[in-house]
């Protein structure tokens, strides 16, 4: 079972903005090849850091308001939120090691 939360325009603020834990949000779309590469790596990060971090996904096609409000211009974009604000952002697909370093370096 996935430890990743699906987030959309209607629940973004509650799921991300008011969460007690840091939240790593993946802004993605089903037609995006690099986004498909990031998916399994996010599953692994969610399994590893699930006690300290929430991993969420926002489909930019289904949630255009959130994508626009967050200034998402390229996907995949990963944004780490703490106390409702973005503390780090990364665009593009990298390796699992790079993703781990990005997350752990910004927790």
From TrEMBL:
Keywords from the named record: Disulfide bond, Electron transport, Redox-active center, Transport
Organism: Marinobacter qingdaonensis
Protein's name in the database: Thioredoxin
Family: Belongs to the thioredoxin family.
InterPro entries reported for this sequence: Thioredoxin (IPR005746), Thioredoxin-like_sf (IPR036249), Thioredoxin_CS (IPR017937), Thioredoxin_domain (IPR013766)
Domain Thioredoxin, chain residue ranges per copy: 1-107
Keyword Transport attached: yes
SUPFAM superfamilies to which the protein is assigned, alphabetical: Thioredoxin-like (SSF52833)
Gene assigned in the entry: trxA
